[in-house]
Amino acid sequence: MAPVKELVVPAILKLIVPAGGAKPGPPVGPALGIYKINLMAFCKEFNARTQIYKPNTPIPATVKVAKGYTFELSIKSPSVAWYLKNAAGIESASGKPGHVVATSLTLKHVYEIAKVKQSDPYCQYMSLEAISRSIIGTAKSTGIKIVKELD
Hints:
single chain, alpha+beta, Arc Repressor Mutant, subunit A, 2 domains, three-stranded antiparallel beta sheet, two-stranded parallel ribbon, 5 helices
């Protein structure tokens, strides 16, 4: 009987890692280690590509693992909810969105977030207006009121 070859199954992993904070330990190490990816190469590439963000900004990353233990890294900008909470200066959203307003932001904030999100791969073909409407919907669902001007 012939020996059974080890199968390398290609995988797609989604991680959220702090900007500039990738290190071989958890959460990166255990997630990528089972695929025998060079952790130091991943950490160096991730940290180099996230230098433009403030430290500890949560960065969504997609890692496509290929045969031969190679990987392809795709980085997105932080989530809309994170941008909204950061712009509003709050730690958490409203516990009862639609009933309790956590804070208010202006349309200018929405527009600035939309400009940043437009660089994401899944938003690059959307208009700024469409992205802004999506951001307003996210704000509403987190209890943040969007107004024309702050009082």
